[in-house]
Amino acid sequence: MNMFDGIKSMPAKVCLGLSSVIMLVYTVNFIFFADCHVINGTGCTSILTSGAEAGDASYGRGAGFLNVAGCL
Questions:
Q1: Total tally of structural domains belonging to the chain
Q2: Disulfide check for 29: which of 2, 13, 47, 54 has CB 3.0–4.6 Å away?
Q3: Is 27 within a domain?
Q4: For the whole model, what pTM was predicted?
Q5: At a CB cut-off of 8 Å and minimum separation 6, what does 45 contact?
Q6: What is the pLDDT of residues 36-54, one digit of tens each?
Q7: Could you report how far apart the first and last alpha carbons of the chain are, in Å?
């Protein structure tokens, strides 16, 4: 049985497929290139960079830390 068998609508299948691809890209980026992501790819290669500059509060910390710190 395929995961698409239970879905009858083609737009829903397309949406699920796109979501799966996006999730895969983010997963690979954060598993293998997490250190490059948090420092904005400085001196290394990353699929997606954080966009943080060296003087930014999020530089070198990562989103998880900032989310917890923001809640406190």
A1: 1
A2: 47
A3: no
A4: 0.55
A5: 33, 36
A6: 766 666 677 777 666 666 6
A7: 46
